[in-house]
Amino acid sequence: MDLFEKCYNYTIAKEVMSAGFYPYFKPMRGNENNMMDDGGQKLIMFGSNNYLGLTSHPKVMEAAMNAIKQYGTSCTGSRFLNGTMHLHEELEHALAQWLGKESALVFSTGMQTNLGVISALCDRNDYVIIDKHAHASLIDGARLSWGKIKRFRHNDTEDLKKVLETIPAESGKLIVVDGVYSMEGDIAPVSEIMAIAASYEAKVLVDDAHATGVLGNGRGTEAYFGINNVDLITSTFSKSFASLGGFVAGKEEIIHYIKHIARSMIFSASLAPPNAASALAALKIMQQEPERIKRVNEIGRRVKAELTAMGFETGHSQTPIVPIIIGDNIITMKAWKFLYENGIFVNAVLAPAVPEGMQLLRTSYMATHTDEQVTRALELFHEMGKQFGLLKNGLEHRVKVADMK
Ligand SMILES: Cc1ncc(COP(=O)(O)O)c(C=O)c1O
């Protein structure tokens, strides 16, 4: 059997391309704050993770350029052997202090952070208990580990308890959730999860990729819930931090262990100097300019309220990620194209990024969007809703989010 057979038979993406509404791998000529340039037209960016609008902040750009001058463009090696800079350590200290944790450890991406942390911690006799909607990097981290995997219904703490009941008391247990779910914009009930974890002697990892810089004065889900007992927080620099990279924060002994065991850290080159420096600069801005955090959340609340009032299905979003749930591949892509042609860039999200039937347009907001830009987007969303039958009492395919757990 020819190994490549599956590739030759993979025709779906090409079919969509020839139908003219393929929404992926769109090349950009330029990216100016909240506008993107595709070479032909300028579109308002309502589909990035640049929540605080810091990718074009002069201080963030300057920090990246200065770091190149001081350290060059790359470390060309792993943190373990020859790729640790003072900049990495400075960033780790600043993050740990900001989050109120004993220690932090920087990885080269958020994906590598989750792969490395979960696989380092969970051995053959351990269990990873993971939310069904958890990010791919968490699922893959669990699969890479030797631990046994159990899944619980999305954000359903009763189901979490039921799953925990089935696990032998003597086994190690790691509960894994996203702080904010990247496609739906809803928040995990982290304080409730911590209380449950305590009664089953389980540890908890929260991936705050979409919560750092956005919730709890920027410090993420723990600060949002007013707690500080989550065992491990992981996050990324590729969103609010306007850079690339990831980190884990927690107790010193646990981070020390991960630092010496996590293969995605030891066997991969360290975070490049401009990325470390820009993440550090972004962190300082988050601390100095809380109005950015306030602004992006205000926009999220406005959009959620107005889209819901128009009759869209917007799920349980409580953040600047507001999904327009459509539940159909073709309509999702056609609706995406309608917005694109009218100067608005959003993300078309199909299965398996979301469960089948939950296909959606992911809209996300930035502190630097103007009220006028948001109004323009809302007008177009409304027009799209009418044209594609997405408003309440519209198409039969509209899904009930509560049924999708
Ligand atoms: C929840 C979540 N975790 C982890 C990641 C991975 O982050 P990175 O882009 O740094 O690899 C992402 C990014 O897509 C994410 O959304």
Concise description?
The protein is α/β, with parallel strands linked by helices and 405 residues long.
Summary tags:
single chain; 14 strands; 4-stranded mixed sheet; 2 domains; 405 residues; Aspartate Aminotransferase, domain 2; alpha/beta; binds pyridoxal-5'-phosphate
Any overview of this molecule?
By secondary structure, the chain is α/β, with parallel strands linked by helices. It has 2 domains: about 10-55 and about 290-405, Aspartate Aminotransferase, domain 1, CATH 3.90.1150.10; about 55-290, Type I PLP-dependent aspartate aminotransferase-like (Major domain) (Aspartate Aminotransferase, domain 2). It has helices at about 5-10, 10-20, 60-70, 85-100, 110-120, 135-145, 155-165, 190-200, 220-225, 250-260, 265, 275-290, 290-310, 330-340, 370-385; strands at about 30, 35, 40-45, 105, 125-130, 150, 175-180, 205, 230-235, 245-250, 320-325, 345, 345-350, 360-365. The strands form 3 sheets. A 7-stranded mixed β-sheet has the order 4-10-9-8-7-5-6, sandwiched between helices. It has a 4-stranded mixed β-sheet with strand order 1-2-3-12. Helix 3 (about 60-70) runs antiparallel to helix 12, helix 5 runs parallel beside helix 6 and helix 13 (about 290-310) packs parallel to helix 15. The longest helix is centred in the C-terminal third of the chain and has 21 residues, at about 290-310. The chain is globular and about 55 Å long. It binds pyridoxal-5'-phosphate (PLP). Pyridoxal-5'-phosphate binds near residues 110, 135, 209 and 246.
